[in-house]
Specification:
Blueprint (H helix, E strand, L loop, with lengths): L5 E8 L5 E5 L5 E3 L2 E3 L5 E3 L13 E6 L7 H5 L7 E8 L6 E15 L2 E8 L35 E5 L2 E3 L3 E4 L14 E4 L8 E10 L3 E6 L12 E5 L6 H6 L16 H5 L3 H5 L1
Antiparallel strand pairs: 1-2, 1-7, 3-4, 5-6, 6-9, 7-8, 8-9, 10-16, 11-12, 12-15, 13-14, 13-16, 14-15
Length: 277
């Protein structure tokens, strides 16, 4: 009878430095300063690796648990882009091992106490478009290193406590600071307390109501629904237009678009090139 001593071991490292190890062996394995546990974590389908630049076609599956990969952390995006390595290892002698996959976690889906995550190989970034896009609207993200706008102070950031919430997406506030209607549309909402602490969503509609009331509608629910009295931070939204950059944010010197580019209609019109050539 032939007995194999080969097991698989996984290492997952989040962006904040947290490291977890898992194995499909029935006992813990330790190497490289990491303990790979058999009782929680991940499994994976067979790897499909190509010689070109295609994504390594595989998925990792695992259980959501309080002491390993929690639903809250998944919803908060803390596992997005986490580094992943997988070894085939001889559990009788862990020094005999072979690295068979290195990459990162891609899209993560969850359901019924479990998660499923796409695995992306090291070649994945090479498939991404590079270079600058020439477009009338700004290509920077509000507050990033290219935008250079400091999102501090009461002008662009507001904190408030939820008064009521409807359908998990419509949040209402009382005694809200005075801002123009729509000031936070396309902006973000970050939960600062309660069960949903750390979760983030994009704002779809921002409606100012009489008597200092405010209604914020999200594009989709947060997964873990905040409760009344939970504290949130709202960040002003940007529609990427030059006029908004100049008038709302006073940051036109850092505008990363090309507002004077001719429109597609101008380019495609049969007579336009002749008249303006």
């Amino acid at each position: 009878m032939t007995v194999t001593t080969i097991a698989r071991a996984w290492m997952v490292r989040r962006g904040d430095g947290m490291v977890l190890g898992f194995t499909d062996h029935d006992a813990a394995l330790t190497f490289g300063g990491i303990t790979f546990r058999p009782d929680h974590g991940m499994s994976a389908r067979a790897l499909v690796q190509a010689t070109g630049l295609s994504v390594d076609n595989s998925e990792a599956e695992g259980a959501l648990s309080d002491d390993s990969i929690t639903e809250k952390d998944v919803l908060a995006g803390r596992w997005d882009g986490a580094e992943v390595k997988m070894w085939e290892v001889d559990w009788a002698d862990v020094a005999r091992r072979r690295l068979v996959f290195a990459g990162s976690l891609g899209e993560i889906a969850r359901s019924q106490g479990a998660f499923r995550a796409e695995l992306r190989g090291l070649s994945e970034p090479l498939n991404m478009a590079r270079g600058r896009v020439f477009h009338p609207r700004c290509s920077a993200r509000l507050g990033d290193g290219r935008c250079k706008l400091a999102l501090t102070g009461e002008t662009f950031v507001a904190e408030a406590r939820i008064t009521t919430i409807e359908d998990g997406r419509i949040l209402r506030f009382a005694n809200f600071p005075v801002y123009e209607a729509g000031w936070f549309e396309r902006g973000s909402l970050n939960v600062l307390s309660g069960e949903a602490d750390g979760l983030r969503a994009t704002i779809k509609n921002d409606t100012a109501l009489p008597g200092g009331l405010r209604e914020i509608e999200l594009w989709q629910g947060l997964g873990i629904t905040p409760a009344a009295a939970d504290r949130v931070r709202l960040v002003a939204g940007c529609d990427k237009r030059a006029a908004t950059c100049r008038e709302k944010f006073g940051n036109f010197v850092n505008f990363r678009g090309f507002p004077h580019l001719p429109s597609e209609d101008w380019i495609m019109a049969p007579q336009a090139g002749y008249r303006h050539g």
